[in-house]
Amino acid sequence: MAEEKQDHGPRIGADPELFVAIRDASTVSEDADKPVKKTKSGNVISKTKKTLDVLEKEFLDSLTTKAEKEKKAEIVAACGRIGGSKGNPRRITAGEMAQSIWGSRLQIDGRSVGDFAVQEDNVMFEFNIPASSRPEYFANNIHYFVEWLDAVFLAPLGLKFAWMNRYSFPEKALTHPLSKEAGCSPDYCAYNPESSLARSAIQIGQLGNQRFCGGHIHVQYNYNNVPRHVMARFMDVAVTLATLHRDKQGDRRKFYGKAGLYRPTNYGIEYRTLSNFWLTPNARGDNIPKRIGDAVISLAQTANTNPDALSAFYNKVPWPDVEKCINEEDQTLKKELLLYVAGKCPFYIGEAV
Question: Using CA atoms, how far apart are residues 12 and 304, in angstroms rounded to an integer?
């Protein structure tokens, strides 16, 4: 019997994390059943042109106003409110979503792998989408699933998304056992020596009361052609450098946002450096998920079909500078690096927007 050929995609998936906050009644009525505005080309129109830092500041400022205090608006722990876990996520079927304007616009095809699902991860709300071979499906599913979750799933629970990647919780919010867990398995750093790529596990005590949200990307590709730690470095170039000016992580950077962070999987890697900045309404309005999808699929396709080109490119990149640039969020160095790799890179690099 002929040996079954292994599927190497390429595909891109995601399991991002978000904070949730108390939603007041007026917010529920304003958001429900409101159609998404789009351009003629089909891109979602952003309602605002604000960075994640600005959105975060506005949200925090709103919590201090008298009106918000009266509404008791606050960021709350998702644990015990959402359902689902790492080992047993709460799957959301197409039938559950089909009757809404958002659910009817989700896109899967015969090459999509996995489910839509939600789960509790420490105090964060985490969701999954099917992995897709098409960047436009990836971006579309991110956008409409987030919209569906906010308007249909969270609203009846009296919750909404809080667009920020870090938050210091009051002690009273960290009593649930899940809030004491820090990571389900160790991650790896592509810049460590090859003999010791795995990082020491972060202990919950190191975080204090701070918690952080990631925007992890799953990449399916032929890891026999390109080692996983090398692929993580390429992801630094493909998606992180171009978006570094938008992904301001604060303390998350030193714990979970360092360059080249990944976990090996049986299909490729889970790339962990990005925060959840690319899920905000502003980022989705600027088509950042689609640009990330284009870059990742281009990179994974090159790994599958032309690994020699990647090998040649790898030897031209000043990797210590890439690591320093990301870890220090050095915008000047970022511009120099993007100029340097332009024309040398055999895969698409997400535009700096």
Answer: 14
Largest CA distance in the chain: 72
Residue 194 and residue 23: Cα distance in Å, rounded? 47
pTM score above 0.90: no
- Report the alpha-carbon distance of residue 80 to residue 123 in Å, rounded: 9
CB-based contact 256:274 (threshold 8 Å): no
Task: Determine if residue 268 is left, alpha or beta; phi over 0 gives left, psi from -120 to 50 gives alpha, anything else beta.
Answer: left
Six token digits for residue 186: 């160790």
pLDDT averaged per 10 residues in sequence order, the chain, 353 residues: 72 98 57 38 43 59 45 80 94 88 88 95 97 97 96 96 96 94 86 94 93 98 98 97 95 97 97 98 96 97 98 98 98 96 92 55
Alpha carbons within 13 angstroms on the beta-carbon side of residue 223 total 17
